[in-house]
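dumping the sequnces here before i forget
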Amino acid sequence: MTRFRRDYGHEILVALAILVLLVAVGAYAPRFVSSRNLAAIFSGNAYVAVAAIGMSMVIILREIDLSIGAMIGVLATLSGSIAVSGAPVWMAWAAPVLGGVVISAVNGALVAYARIPSIVVTLGMMAILQGGLISVTGGGWISDLPEGYRIAQMTVAGVPMPLVWAVVLTLLAGWWMKNTAFGRSIYLIGGNPLAARAVGLPVKSRIVAVFALHGAFAGLATLLFATQLQVIQSTTPPNLELIVITAAVIGGVSIMGGAGTVYGASLAAVLFAAMGSALIFVNVSAYWLRALIGVLILLTVMADMARRKRQMRQEAQ
Amino acid sequence: MMRRHEWILLGLIVLAFAGLGMMSDRFLTLDNLLNQARLMAEVAIVAVAMTLVILTGGIDLSVGATLGLCAVVLGALWQGAGLPLPLAMGLTLALSGLCGLVNGLLILRFGMPPLIATLGTLALYRGLAEGIAQARSVRGYPEWFSTLGQGSFAGLPVQVWVMLAVALVALVVVERMRAGRLLRAVGHNETAARFSGLPVQGAKLAVYGISGLSAGIAALIFVSRVGTTRSDMGTGLELDAITAVVLGGTSIFGGKGSVIGTLLALILIQALKSGLLMAGIKGDGTVVLIGLVLILTLLAGAVGDRRA
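..and the predicted 3d for all of it:
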């Protein structure tokens, strides 16, 4: 038990924060914990959790991806366009996942082989995708989505599909990162790239592979995001990159690389969603949500830096 | 005093101007050139300050959000709190400097990487702007206020004078004074700079303060130019500024670079933007171009480095 607490201390903290929020706001406004609102919180934001899984891997690798929001916007439009074109539904589902892998692998290759910092590469990619999407589509809506396309509306034994995806993908990715050689190598490369190279890990191709995997998660997140509503808007969801990165960071993924789990990131995505919903129930304007998120990011990173300093001092003794 | 990279940029500018002049006889008119200069002033002021930040090996992603917050606060102080506009402007500038100093303190005091610290304050500042504005805009600024963004002085748009003043000060400080060498030393090897007894912390705090202040100045010009304040003002400004700095030859890792390069890159980008506009490609197309130019420049730089 103590070992569990040591390994997953941060994740437990985030889970407790969700619980406290649900109880406190629920006591104030019972409708907040009604099954309808809870379903909206959990399944309406499951796509953030799925995207945060891939983002966590990228950040644990000591890289970052600012283009995720624009990427999801482009992939949603791609998927929707295929869906209404009359092509088989499986193609509309497969396309965003493949597209995500390709776009993200390009990012990864520029980072690994051209040695351009990922922040700059993905900033540029964000501009290209965002500007390109609006230039091509004019920001219109895709409507009349065919029957059987909208995954986010389906249920498995009564449980909303987005929730099933988020839980299953989080558990799978978490297990994979802890129990396979490839998964563990992500921590080593991010925590100590020199040591990773010294033990013979193919660091460059791993960077591309992790970015590609992150792109696949972005594609899966896109499917949940795009099929939520009756229509798909061909623009970039605003600030989605910030929300996904923040979920990873608040979930305990260290921005200095090498530490953190996807469990924490997924939980943090739920925490955010609950926070956004809670603001409305306690009659605070939703326009303050972003400021709140900013404060949360800074506090979490401060705590992370302080923890690192303490660790270094302990190791020095 | 110009390096190879800057000569290349100058050559590209000449090419772009010649090409655009042939494409349209309206491009090389004084009116159009002055108008282009007016349009680039806000980004230029921020990009010059960003050059100093990146020279020290840092980055400031919060400048666009700082601009938005300053614009909203200016409107709130003037119309909401009823302060005289000059006082509101002064307080807004003070706030912008403070925003920058907060970035600096987060980076120095808490040891946060600049990227994450300013990503956090990006959310915070933009969030404060949204929270204060509550999706309302402030209009109806007095006549005299609009001269800053719409008027002219001695034949040049007023904000172009501001831009030239900022550029000149930065040029003198970075290229001709000890402070410039200090910034490069910090960016090149921070540990060595610290062991040499250089005021590393002071230098870093100063560049983030200046960066915030530049966003405040740009905010005043922006509000004056468009005559209204909204909380989404300055969205993406950080991308424009960073692109200009990097295209201008300043290393994203710090230590190497120049203000001249940034200025030349700004002119080139503005020429390309107006060229695309004349060719009938809308604003979103130019965002694609900026992204492409940014990545290709770095790619070329990376290939060049390997050869060297």
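The mean pLDDT of chain A is 88.
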